[in-house]
Write a structure and sequence with these properties.
Largest sheet: 7 strands, mixed
Order of helices and strands: HEHHEEHHEHEHEEEHEEEHEEEE
Oligomer: single chain
Distance between the termini: 49 Å
Structural class: alpha/beta
Length: 240
Protein backbone atom coordinates (compact mmCIF):
# COMPACT_ATOMS: atom_id res chain seq x y z
CA UNK A 1 0.00 0.00 0.00
CA UNK A 2 1.36 3.41 -0.94
CA UNK A 3 1.65 6.35 1.46
CA UNK A 4 -1.34 8.28 0.07
CA UNK A 5 -3.59 5.26 0.38
CA UNK A 6 -2.45 4.68 3.97
CA UNK A 7 -3.09 8.35 4.78
CA UNK A 8 -6.65 8.12 3.45
CA UNK A 9 -7.35 5.05 5.54
CA UNK A 10 -5.96 6.77 8.65
CA UNK A 11 -8.25 9.74 8.01
CA UNK A 12 -11.26 7.44 7.71
CA UNK A 13 -10.31 5.51 10.86
CA UNK A 14 -10.08 8.79 12.78
CA UNK A 15 -13.44 9.88 11.40
CA UNK A 16 -14.99 6.63 12.63
CA UNK A 17 -13.12 6.58 15.94
CA UNK A 18 -16.33 6.99 17.96
CA UNK A 19 -18.26 4.42 15.94
CA UNK A 20 -21.00 4.94 13.39
CA UNK A 21 -20.59 4.59 9.66
CA UNK A 22 -19.97 6.53 6.45
CA UNK A 23 -21.55 6.04 3.08
CA UNK A 24 -19.00 5.18 0.43
CA UNK A 25 -19.69 8.47 -1.34
CA UNK A 26 -19.13 10.38 1.91
CA UNK A 27 -15.84 8.62 2.50
CA UNK A 28 -14.71 9.47 -1.03
CA UNK A 29 -15.65 13.14 -0.57
CA UNK A 30 -13.85 13.30 2.79
CA UNK A 31 -10.66 12.03 1.15
CA UNK A 32 -11.06 13.95 -2.09
CA UNK A 33 -10.96 10.87 -4.31
CA UNK A 34 -13.38 8.63 -6.20
CA UNK A 35 -15.42 5.81 -4.68
CA UNK A 36 -13.38 3.36 -6.74
CA UNK A 37 -10.18 4.65 -5.13
CA UNK A 38 -11.64 4.05 -1.68
CA UNK A 39 -12.59 0.52 -2.74
CA UNK A 40 -9.01 -0.08 -3.91
CA UNK A 41 -7.66 1.27 -0.62
CA UNK A 42 -9.88 -1.12 1.30
CA UNK A 43 -8.88 -4.08 -0.86
CA UNK A 44 -5.20 -3.40 -0.11
CA UNK A 45 -5.72 -2.69 3.59
CA UNK A 46 -5.33 -4.87 6.69
CA UNK A 47 -9.09 -5.09 7.22
CA UNK A 48 -9.41 -2.40 9.90
CA UNK A 49 -12.27 -0.91 7.88
CA UNK A 50 -15.08 -2.91 6.27
CA UNK A 51 -17.72 -2.05 3.71
CA UNK A 52 -21.18 -3.47 4.49
CA UNK A 53 -24.16 -2.63 2.29
CA UNK A 54 -22.48 0.51 0.97
CA UNK A 55 -21.57 1.72 4.48
CA UNK A 56 -18.00 2.00 5.71
CA UNK A 57 -17.36 1.10 9.37
CA UNK A 58 -14.58 0.01 11.69
CA UNK A 59 -14.18 -3.77 11.84
CA UNK A 60 -13.45 -3.60 15.59
CA UNK A 61 -16.61 -1.64 16.47
CA UNK A 62 -18.52 -4.04 18.79
CA UNK A 63 -21.84 -2.48 17.81
CA UNK A 64 -21.51 -3.80 14.28
CA UNK A 65 -21.37 -7.33 12.92
CA UNK A 66 -20.10 -8.23 9.43
CA UNK A 67 -23.06 -10.36 8.41
CA UNK A 68 -26.37 -11.83 9.45
CA UNK A 69 -26.85 -15.58 9.37
CA UNK A 70 -30.48 -16.62 9.90
CA UNK A 71 -29.55 -20.20 10.69
CA UNK A 72 -27.05 -19.08 13.33
CA UNK A 73 -29.59 -16.70 14.86
CA UNK A 74 -32.33 -19.33 15.13
CA UNK A 75 -31.10 -20.87 18.38
CA UNK A 76 -29.58 -17.75 19.94
CA UNK A 77 -31.56 -16.66 23.01
CA UNK A 78 -34.34 -19.03 21.92
CA UNK A 79 -35.87 -19.36 25.37
CA UNK A 80 -35.87 -15.59 25.88
CA UNK A 81 -37.55 -15.07 22.51
CA UNK A 82 -40.22 -17.61 23.41
CA UNK A 83 -41.00 -15.81 26.69
CA UNK A 84 -41.15 -12.43 24.98
CA UNK A 85 -43.49 -13.72 22.30
CA UNK A 86 -45.77 -15.24 24.92
CA UNK A 87 -46.22 -11.75 26.32
CA UNK A 88 -46.85 -10.38 22.85
CA UNK A 89 -49.49 -13.04 22.16
CA UNK A 90 -51.45 -11.87 25.20
CA UNK A 91 -52.25 -8.59 23.42
CA UNK A 92 -54.08 -10.20 20.47
CA UNK A 93 -57.79 -9.57 19.97
CA UNK A 94 -60.50 -11.07 17.77
CA UNK A 95 -60.31 -9.77 14.20
CA UNK A 96 -56.83 -8.24 14.49
CA UNK A 97 -54.76 -7.70 11.36
CA UNK A 98 -51.13 -8.20 12.33
CA UNK A 99 -47.87 -7.27 10.65
CA UNK A 100 -45.18 -9.79 11.67
CA UNK A 101 -41.63 -8.79 10.83
CA UNK A 102 -38.85 -11.03 9.50
CA UNK A 103 -36.01 -12.70 11.40
CA UNK A 104 -36.11 -15.26 14.21
CA UNK A 105 -37.28 -13.22 17.19
CA UNK A 106 -40.95 -13.32 16.18
CA UNK A 107 -41.07 -16.96 15.11
CA UNK A 108 -42.56 -18.14 18.46
CA UNK A 109 -45.26 -15.50 17.97
CA UNK A 110 -46.08 -16.75 14.46
CA UNK A 111 -46.07 -20.39 15.58
CA UNK A 112 -48.16 -19.69 18.66
CA UNK A 113 -51.07 -17.73 17.18
CA UNK A 114 -54.23 -18.89 19.00
CA UNK A 115 -56.68 -21.06 17.10
CA UNK A 116 -59.71 -19.52 18.80
CA UNK A 117 -59.21 -16.05 17.26
CA UNK A 118 -59.88 -14.96 13.68
CA UNK A 119 -56.72 -13.16 12.60
CA UNK A 120 -55.08 -11.81 9.45
CA UNK A 121 -51.29 -11.85 9.22
CA UNK A 122 -49.29 -9.64 6.85
CA UNK A 123 -45.63 -10.57 6.40
CA UNK A 124 -42.77 -10.51 3.90
CA UNK A 125 -40.89 -13.32 5.68
CA UNK A 126 -41.05 -16.85 4.31
CA UNK A 127 -40.31 -18.50 7.67
CA UNK A 128 -43.14 -16.55 9.29
CA UNK A 129 -45.49 -17.46 6.42
CA UNK A 130 -44.56 -21.16 6.80
CA UNK A 131 -45.52 -21.09 10.47
CA UNK A 132 -48.69 -19.02 10.01
CA UNK A 133 -50.01 -21.09 7.11
CA UNK A 134 -50.41 -24.07 9.43
CA UNK A 135 -52.53 -22.17 11.95
CA UNK A 136 -56.32 -22.62 11.75
CA UNK A 137 -58.41 -19.47 11.59
CA UNK A 138 -55.56 -17.31 10.28
CA UNK A 139 -55.63 -15.55 6.91
CA UNK A 140 -52.17 -15.04 5.46
CA UNK A 141 -51.14 -12.11 3.25
CA UNK A 142 -47.61 -12.83 2.00
CA UNK A 143 -45.90 -9.82 0.41
CA UNK A 144 -43.80 -10.99 -2.52
CA UNK A 145 -40.92 -9.91 -4.67
CA UNK A 146 -37.30 -10.96 -5.04
CA UNK A 147 -36.42 -13.63 -2.48
CA UNK A 148 -33.50 -12.77 -0.16
CA UNK A 149 -32.14 -16.05 1.21
CA UNK A 150 -29.99 -14.37 3.88
CA UNK A 151 -33.09 -13.40 5.87
CA UNK A 152 -35.68 -15.68 4.19
CA UNK A 153 -37.66 -12.60 3.23
CA UNK A 154 -38.84 -10.83 0.08
CA UNK A 155 -37.87 -7.51 -1.48
CA UNK A 156 -40.53 -5.86 -3.64
CA UNK A 157 -40.89 -2.36 -5.09
CA UNK A 158 -44.60 -2.09 -4.28
CA UNK A 159 -44.41 -3.64 -0.81
CA UNK A 160 -44.68 -0.38 1.12
CA UNK A 161 -47.66 0.78 -0.95
CA UNK A 162 -49.45 -2.52 -0.33
CA UNK A 163 -48.89 -2.29 3.42
CA UNK A 164 -50.18 1.29 3.43
CA UNK A 165 -53.48 0.09 1.91
CA UNK A 166 -54.06 -2.49 4.64
CA UNK A 167 -55.74 -1.83 7.98
CA UNK A 168 -53.08 -3.11 10.37
CA UNK A 169 -54.09 -3.10 14.02
CA UNK A 170 -50.77 -4.23 15.51
CA UNK A 171 -47.32 -4.24 13.94
CA UNK A 172 -44.92 -6.64 15.65
CA UNK A 173 -41.41 -5.51 14.76
CA UNK A 174 -37.94 -6.91 15.25
CA UNK A 175 -34.58 -5.12 15.21
CA UNK A 176 -30.96 -6.22 15.19
CA UNK A 177 -29.94 -3.04 16.97
CA UNK A 178 -31.71 -0.84 19.53
CA UNK A 179 -29.82 2.30 20.53
CA UNK A 180 -31.01 5.20 22.68
CA UNK A 181 -29.69 7.82 20.25
CA UNK A 182 -29.37 5.99 16.92
CA UNK A 183 -32.77 4.28 17.14
CA UNK A 184 -33.72 0.97 15.55
CA UNK A 185 -31.63 -0.71 12.88
CA UNK A 186 -31.23 -3.98 11.00
CA UNK A 187 -28.65 -5.69 8.79
CA UNK A 188 -30.48 -5.61 5.45
CA UNK A 189 -31.50 -2.47 3.59
CA UNK A 190 -34.40 -4.19 1.79
CA UNK A 191 -36.13 -4.58 5.17
CA UNK A 192 -36.35 -0.83 5.78
CA UNK A 193 -39.30 -0.11 3.44
CA UNK A 194 -41.72 -2.73 4.84
CA UNK A 195 -40.75 -2.01 8.44
CA UNK A 196 -41.22 1.71 7.86
CA UNK A 197 -44.55 1.23 6.08
CA UNK A 198 -45.86 -0.94 8.93
CA UNK A 199 -44.78 1.66 11.48
CA UNK A 200 -46.49 4.43 9.52
CA UNK A 201 -49.80 2.60 9.03
CA UNK A 202 -50.36 0.45 12.13
CA UNK A 203 -52.61 1.52 14.99
CA UNK A 204 -50.07 0.16 17.48
CA UNK A 205 -46.35 -0.49 16.94
CA UNK A 206 -44.77 -3.15 19.19
CA UNK A 207 -41.06 -3.94 19.22
CA UNK A 208 -40.08 -7.40 20.49
CA UNK A 209 -36.37 -7.57 21.23
CA UNK A 210 -34.09 -9.72 23.36
CA UNK A 211 -31.52 -7.88 25.53
CA UNK A 212 -28.58 -8.90 23.31
CA UNK A 213 -29.73 -6.30 20.74
CA UNK A 214 -29.83 -3.37 23.18
CA UNK A 215 -27.15 -0.71 22.72
CA UNK A 216 -26.21 -1.94 19.23
CA UNK A 217 -26.24 -0.15 15.88
CA UNK A 218 -26.58 -2.06 12.60
CA UNK A 219 -26.08 -0.72 9.05
CA UNK A 220 -29.73 -0.01 8.07
CA UNK A 221 -31.64 2.40 10.33
CA UNK A 222 -35.43 2.18 9.99
CA UNK A 223 -36.97 4.07 12.93
CA UNK A 224 -36.44 6.04 16.12
CA UNK A 225 -37.53 4.86 19.54
CA UNK A 226 -40.30 7.47 19.48
CA UNK A 227 -41.86 5.65 16.51
CA UNK A 228 -42.66 2.69 18.78
CA UNK A 229 -45.59 2.46 21.20
CA UNK A 230 -44.39 -0.52 23.24
CA UNK A 231 -41.14 -2.40 23.72
CA UNK A 232 -41.29 -6.00 24.94
CA UNK A 233 -37.93 -7.10 26.26
CA UNK A 234 -36.66 -9.04 29.29
CA UNK A 235 -37.83 -6.24 31.56
CA UNK A 236 -41.50 -5.42 31.93
CA UNK A 237 -43.11 -4.10 28.73
CA UNK A 238 -42.14 -0.47 28.35
CA UNK A 239 -44.21 2.24 26.72
CA UNK A 240 -42.05 4.88 25.06
Amino acid sequence: MNERSAARLRRLLISLAEGGSLRLAEAATLCGVSEMTIRRDLAASDGALVLVGGLLMRADDPRHAPAYDLAAQRDRHAEVKRRLCERALASLEEGDTLFIDCGTTLMPLAAGLPSDLSLTVVTYALNVADAVSARPGVRLWLLGGLYQSSSRSFDGDDMAATIARLGINKAFLSAAGVHAEKGLSCFHFHEVAPKRAAIDSAERRILVVDPSKLGLVRPARFAGLDDIDEIITEEESAVV
